[in-house]
Each structure stands twice: as C-alpha cells, then as structure tokens.
Write a structure and sequence with these properties.
globular; five-stranded antiparallel sheet; mainly beta; 224 residues; disordered N terminus
Length: 224
C-alpha cells in the first residue's frame, strides 16, 4: 500500500533512483527502427539487436513521448538526420505543459538540455528528442509543479550536471513531478527534462536493474 504522506514529502535520495552518467568513451545514441525498418520498441529487443551487431548496450531508457504509431511526438534527430521536426503546437498533457524542451547530443558527443524555444537548430547535432515538460529551467523547478501533489508515477528524465556530464534518472517508485524535478535540481542540474512516466523503463545491468520490456518509440541507448 502506497503511503502518500511519506512518499510525497520526503526529499528523493540516490537510493530512490536508478541513475547513470556516461563516460567519455561511451556513446549516447537515439534508436527507433532496426535495419529492416521495424520499430525496435523494447529495451530487451534493442539489446539483442545491438548484440547481433557486436555492440554492447550498457544503459538504455525510453526517450520521450510518441504517438499511437510510435513515431516521436516532437523533434527527433537520429545520426544527424531530422526524422521529425520541432513541435511548437499547443495541446493537453505533459508534453504540452510549457515550457517543454529538447535533449540533444552534439557532434562532439556533448549532451544538452534546453527549452524548445531555445533550441539552436539541427546543425552540428547528432541526436535529439523533444519531450515535456522541462523539470528544471535555469536552476529553477518548473513553475507549474505543485509541491505535495498526489499525481504520482514512476518517472524518467535527463539533466546536465555542473561538470557537463549527462545524468539519466528513473525513480524506483512512484513520485510526483515536483519531487522528481527537485532531485535533478539538488544534483546541480541547471536544466533537466522529463521524458515520460508510468511506462518508464530502464536497462542498466551493471546497476542490477534490467527491464527488457516496453512498447516505445524513441529509445536512448548508451553503447560501448
């Protein structure tokens, strides 16, 4: 039985999260379809596909919201190619809780998180996914989040640490958006982006966490 009082008021600690920060020798990529044009979909299938290509998947998580056909809801850039353009439409749901944002990896392998309206364009960008809402904006928690909210789910997101490293995180248990954002803020992330909730899954064998299911569109994978 979930105890809302304890869950919603306690500040999230590292023990409450599955976290990963890639090293310089590890490559952060976005995946969607395999070589035959079939949507990869799950973290386990991504691992199997990469293993068949003699590549090692060390970490993966779902990488943003998608439509019914599992095409990205917003911007999606893969291997320097724009698959879907930036989405600046208005609508209902987390994606449209403004400001939303973009996680992208430039041609030098450096990760970035920015508001959608601050996205610099596709030049010199290798991978990008748009999602929403932003969790942390210029060091501040998204103003639309309510402390103590009872709207709780398992959630995953990405932020940029003060030293420039990427921080991927998924809650082990259900959390609200305010507490989830506060975790990234307390880690020193000036900008962090919500990727999804409820459906969130993470593949991290070295961290004793390996969820190989899922029914995703874009997937973030770290390969070495």
């Amino acid at each position: 039985m979930l105890c809302f009082g304890a869950t919603l008021s306690a500040q999230l600690q590292d023990k409450d999260m599955i976290t990963f920060s890639p090293t310089a020798r590890q490559k952060v990529q976005l995946f969607w379809k395999d070589d035959q044009g079939k949507i990869i979909g799950s973290l386990g299938r991504l691992n199997n596909w990469l293993t068949g290509k003699q590549q090692k998947l060390v970490f993966a998580m779902n990488g943003g919201m998608h439509m019914e056909d599992r095409a990205a809801l917003g911007l999606f850039i893969q291997n320097g190619k724009v698959i879907r353009k930036l989405n600046k439409a208005k609508g209902y749901g987390n994606f449209y809780l403004m400001p939303n944002g973009v996680f992208y990896v430039d041609n030098k392998g450096k990760g970035h998180v920015c508001k959608t309206n601050s996205f610099p364009g596709s030049k010199n960008i290798q991978h990008a996914t748009q999602s929403g809402p932003m969790l942390v904006i210029d060091g501040h928690i998204h103003p639309g989040f309510k402390k103590g909210s009872s709207n709780v789910h398992v959630r995953n997101g990405v932020g940029i640490l003060p030293d420039g490293r990427m921080l991927f995180a998924m809650s082990r248990n259900t959390v609200n958006l305010y507490d989830f954002a506060e975790y990234f803020k307390n880690k020193g992330c000036k900008n962090a982006l919500f990727l999804d909730g409820f459906v969130s899954r993470t593949w991290y064998p070295a961290g004793n966490w390996k969820q190989d299911d899922g029914h995703f569109g874009v997937i973030i994978g770290v390969v070495e």
